[in-house]
Amino acid sequence: MKKQLIEKIKTREATIGIIGLGYVGLPLLIEFGKASFHVLGIDIDESKIKSLKKGESYIKHIEAKEIHALFCTKDEKKKEILADATTNFSRIAECDALLICVPTPLTKHRDPDLSYIIDTAEKMGKFICPDQIIILESTTYPGTTEEVLQPILEGRSEMTAGTDFFIAYSPEREDPNNKDFGTKKIPKVVGGINPDSLEVACILYDTVICETVSVSNCRTAEATKLTENIFRCINIALVNELKMVFSEMDIDIWEVIDAASTKPFGFMPFYPGPGLGGHCIPIDPFYLSWKAKEYGLQTKFIELAGEINTSMPNYVMQKTLLAMNDIKKSIKDSKVLIVGLAYKKNVDDDRESPTYELWERLDALGAKVDYFDPYCPVVQPTREHPQFAGIKSIALEDIEKNNYDVAIISTSHDCVDHDDLASKITLVVDTRGACKPADNIIKA
């Protein structure tokens, strides 16, 4: 069993199934395809499947030519098209390895929402076969792989994990549009439910990733990803708090960070903003906080960082209202431009973007709001903010003639000349340190 699967992997005869074709799953599919594996992408979103089969990319930093090379062009060695995509979960039976890359958001009460993992496992369980390896990549709390995923797969398939098929956990570490560290260059942490599962998983990732880092079990691998993102969450909270303190002292936090960064040891720069965004940092710490309660523990440090970071949109609004008061303008009926919808610069990923929180607060106060983001030309449907779906970004050339009362820079894409933009607007609230000092610039 194990030997045959390993041999298929080493000889590139294995078919790799990627479930969930978003910012994590699609880059992973591309890497396996580049390594001459047959790859099958599975997603419930029919529009993604149609785009892939046309050779089109729906993620801005992933070039269409990479999609076209896999889905529309015959491989020179194998003389066949290497990739296919489907919404049909029964095709799981065609695969030798299945990598689960589905979302793990929070509920309204900030508890872990494992519904995507559970639903995927339920669908998979009917079709998995002996000798397959199944790897969960979704970020989650320690214990999910063995306590949630494994029982469902075993129950639905009537097989025993670790004997009839293999299960492992390897957390995704994607940083969208990071030109220095793409999927292939980021080491893979891997944990298995038993030694055989770990061995197969490491051999699989060794074919496409620069390095695999094996750990003793799935729980350790799950905890590793949470630790990485909690580290970032806490340090971002620290600089957000320092920003508020230094602002009262008339000190520019961005200048302070730049100066501190000249120290060659003992300091790592983190930067403040209007709040946390993306699918990881605003969410992952709460997964551990929730799980810790099962053991009678309270994660005070993590929860404090979460409170600081989630309070930042309120701070930005306070700074905005005070600045508008200084120019004798009421926020009600004022024309407001939000610059940047994506959660960070140079990506089209708007998941958990703090811009939405600012937008909701401005709407509630009666402001007339437009947004500008060349990376996000149209607001896509979101579960948390459905009222904004379909709204289009204003064109850059229309900004000056619209005579906005205030602009709030929420995201600072490199392709935007923020100083030029700021020169066209009476008041600019800069949450990213994007603009040079000027009389109409307020740092927030």
The percent of residues in helical segments reads 25-40%
Number of strands: 13
Q: Largest beta sheet, briefly?
A: 8 strands, mixed
Describe the global form: globular
| Domain module count | 3
CATH superfamily of the largest domain: NAD(P)-binding Rossmann-like Domain
Mean pLDDT: 94
Q: Compute the number of helices.
A: 14
**Cα-atom Rg, whole angstroms?**
24 Å
Output the structural class.
alpha/beta
List low-pLDDT spans: none
Q: How much of the sequence is in beta strands?
A: 5-15%
Note the run of SSEs as H and E.
Answer: HEHEHHEEHEHEEHEHHHHHEHEEHEE
Distance between the termini: 59 Å
CATH-derived architecture of the largest domain: 3-Layer(aba) Sandwich
State the CATH topology of the largest domain. Answer: Rossmann fold
Record the strand order, biggest sheet: 3-2-1-4-5-6-7-8
The level 1 CATH classification of the largest domain is Alpha Beta
